[in-house]
Amino acid sequence: MTEDKSGRTFWARLASWGPYHALMRLTTASPRRQFLILAAFPILWVLSQHLGPMLQMLRVSLTDAYPVAPGVEQHFTLDNYGRFFGDSIFWMPFFRTLIFAGVFTFCTLIITYPVAYFLARHVSRKNQMLLLLLLLIPFWVGEIVRTYAIMILLGNTGAVNLALKTLGLIDRPIPFMYTSFSMGVGIVYLTALYMLLPLYSSLEKLPKSMNEAAADLGAGAWTRFRRVSLPLTIEGISSGCTLVFLISTGFYATPVLLGGPSTTVFAETIAGFFHVAGDEWPTGAAFATIMFAAALAITATFQKLMNALRKGDKK
Amino acid sequence: MNDRPEVFRGNRIFLACIYWAFVLYVFVPLILMVLMGFKDSNFIGFPIKSWTLDWYTGVFADAEVLSTFGYSVAIAVLSTLISIFVGTWIAVLLEGRKFWGRTLLFGLAVLPALVPGIISAIAFRIYARWLGIEPGMGAIVWAHAVHNVPFVVLVVMARLSTLPKSQIEAARDLGADPLISFIRVTLPYLVPAILGASIFCLLLSFDDFVRSFFLGGYEPTLPVLIFAKLRSGMSPEINAIATVALFLTAAIGIWAERFTRRMNKEN
Amino acid sequence: MTDQTTPLVRIEGLSKHFGETVALNNLTLDIARGEFVTFLGPSGCGKSTTLRILGGFERPTTGRVILDGEDVTNQPPEKRHVNMVFQDYALFPHMTVAQNVAFGLELKGMRKSEIQRRSAEIMSFLELESYATRYPAQLSGGQRQRVALARALAPDPALLLLDEPLGALDAKLRGQVQQELKSIQRRTHKTFFFVTHDQEEALTMSDRIVVMNKGKVEQDGTPEELYFRPASRFVAEFIGETNLLSGRMRGSDGDKIVMDWEGTTLLGKAPAGVPGEGQPITASVRLEKLGFSAERPQTANAVQGRVVAKTFLGSRMAMQIAVGENGALLKAYVDADTGQSLGSDPVWIGWEPDNMAVLND
């Protein structure tokens, strides 16, 4: 606390300082006004910064020229959306992306579920945090560095091929790289954490006694999993899958680095419209809008389905 | 674990194997990448026959790489400051009294975290153009700040929900106006959450590629530099750069994890 | 302003609605200076709402609060000369005991030297000097409670609000703190507004108890009045243990009421409004006011009965006695020796009319 001549503390002086006092009187005159002043900035920010970019993208996608050159008039058009359906070079990557994202999400789920299950159910509380932290460390490392690590792992002279060769299983290296396989390994690597954490937290909430009760009633390991753990962790599965699916559709650098010509994803198609100069932005915006709408529609349907499943189970 | 029934032991060994296999999956690629940075050859690949530190000395002598480091760190710090300010404000509003449209506002507040990377990047690119922000540092800082706000909102809201209402009432009762009670009672309570969220934002920003790539000017951030170098061919030099970045982020991450845990324990 | 004859607090027609529910219904009440007044009632009776309105944390739907002659109904908490001890104490965890105590003084605009003097004074008054540099997490429940009290008393409030501050303490400590609190109130001459649902606590400490139920005042009086002359069935049942005798009004005899109960004629103290003849009425007799004897006692009220159950409680015994043809049950406390001597023979039970209050409802 700083002290002035009067010996009063900073806060007391601030509270009685004329302009501050007047400001507080003005802003807190009624609970309603105080609330409006508190709420104004967040509302403005969220509308202009969170919603604004999405709306502006939508608006640009409906025009024929952007950025607008001087002397050129901007018109409303749906042509950008028409272009998408007109050429397989556009919609092929689109469907490929959705299918890939779906498959990769499923793979992530299959791989991380036993890991989360082990952590939540078979490890003592003290070790749980330690073993979980161990898994978190690699996830602090960025997308590009981790993608590069996969390139080194799967290359023709990479660790996997070297190991297979040393074991005498192969004579010539298997070309893992630049295929949907290498892409999948990379994307699962990047997204695993976003699946693992929701699964872990929903599994952790289950009382351990529940499994024992099921075993007591004569349920085998598989039945216990299918009838007890799985239905009760649908919430975690649902939010983990939603998150991983949305993230998977948005990868750009990883498919560029790990994928090949036959695995071009829609992100690369969209990016293409922003690399070339000229008036291709509206098309790019339209394609991005299509992508976002599709991703949202799929995840929303998926969540509805999972909810129905959960409710069905409760009956 | 000794009190668990015998029937569960078989599962446990099986699941433990899966866990450790998964640990290998997430660690081995990074370990190999680090090792490759010590290879005494221009050619990336195994086996490594001789070792060198030259690539590392090269990295620390390379003015471009060093300035890129600084550039990335500056962007991370600036965008984090903005995210923390905005995110905390939004969290305070959302955790306060109920009001019409609160759920909607929450949805909008976390929206940037749910938009897939490429779409978020080009939406920001278009919006920056519309606002008149030139590609470059300002644009990247802005995009990172907006993108990271949801994480701050979630972390701060979680902490705020555990602050007893009586704490604020006590401060008001003792003569503090709403702003002074916020600064002297709420804010100190939020410190662990704000620190944790700051570290998270710093790392998200430092590691971000797609937004930095689409909103950047001539000067690359570190991930963009690595990406550019990779496109023109793999080299142990890239491993050395990536390794430095890796240790920096992992160290900050681990430190933050331990720090926030200690803070939580104290309270 | 400092006129000692006017009440410190005037509550005028206070109501509070939360949506459809009425938490407080048209409360009008004065609180005198230096009074220890307790608002007693079950949860949801409106006692906490009253306290929160006095503290400035809620605004009433209708009505006014006048503090020291000034209408404070719409003043925020920071402007009122009222301080509060919270149920969970609400000590600031990041401040030491001394900083907690100084918080209110600081914002009052006191000089630093003055703050130090006053904090030291209040901390020594509550025997907290040795904890000055500790944090709340390092204190026991009783110590935290004292710190909360010190923090609220430090700014020298006109009115101190206490929101069930003993609820978090264990039973043994609670009794001790009750004595302490009462003595602190005496020594500081402060007006205490205490809220609790614990009738024993209220009886021990208060000068005056206001029993609340469903947003309204059931009875307002000294602990003795409430205990021995409950005005309603609710008060009789809420405070202490009692026998409720349902009978029929027969007539009045001076300030006494004559009633029929289980074939016997009883005399009791009359309530404010005398019910009509032949009306069903209820009377209340405390358990410890019933006397036992082998022969018919000299008391105005006497009935004969049979002991049906005994419960040993250490220094005393709880008895259940069946009375009359229908076997109506009376409960009574007797000392352990008397209790043991009572067998299955019929006994006489007697009590004076002054110890039986005829209730209003």
UniProtKB/TrEMBL annotation, chain A:
Gene3D superfamilies: MetI-like
Location of the protein in the cell: Cell membrane
Protein name per UniProt: ABC transporter permease
ABC transmembrane type-1 domain sequence ranges: 94-302
Topology in membrane: Multi-pass membrane protein
Superkingdom, natural source: Bacteria
Stated family: Belongs to the binding-protein-dependent transport system permease family. CysTW subfamily.
Keywords linked to the UniProt accession: Cell membrane, Membrane, Transmembrane, Transmembrane helix, Transport
Transmembrane annotation, as ranges: 89-119, 131-154, 174-200, 284-302
UniProtKB/TrEMBL annotation, chain B:
Gene3D superfamilies in the record: MetI-like (1.10.3720.10)
Record has Membrane as a keyword: yes
Record keyword Transmembrane helix present: yes
First and last residue of the signal peptide: none
Entry coiled-coil feature ranges: none
Chief place of localization: membrane
Domain ABC transmembrane type-1: 69-256
InterPro entries membership: Bact_Polyamine_Transport (IPR051789), MetI-like (IPR000515), MetI-like_sf (IPR035906)
Pfam families found in the cross-reference section: BPD_transp_1
Regions crossing the membrane: 12-38, 69-92, 104-127, 139-160, 181-206, 238-256
Membrane topology, as annotated: Multi-pass membrane protein
UniProt keyword list: Cell membrane, Membrane, Transmembrane, Transmembrane helix, Transport
Subcellular location: Cell membrane
Family of this protein: Belongs to the binding-protein-dependent transport system permease family. CysTW subfamily.
Name assigned to this protein: ABC transporter permease
Source organism of this protein record: Paracoccus maritimus
Automatic annotation (TrEMBL), chain C:
Pfam families xrefs: ABC_tran, TOBE_2
Superkingdom field: Bacteria
The enzyme's E.C. designation: 7.6.2.11
A GO molecular-function annotation: ATP binding
Catalytic reaction annotation: ATP + H2O + polyamine-[polyamine-binding protein]Side 1 = ADP + phosphate + polyamineSide 2 + [polyamine-binding protein]Side 1
Subunit structure: The complex is composed of two ATP-binding proteins (PotA), two transmembrane proteins (PotB and PotC) and a solute-binding protein (PotD).
Sequence similarity: Belongs to the ABC transporter superfamily. Spermidine/putrescine importer (TC 3.A.1.11.1) family.
Protein's recorded name: Spermidine/putrescine import ATP-binding protein PotA
Gene source species: Paracoccus maritimus
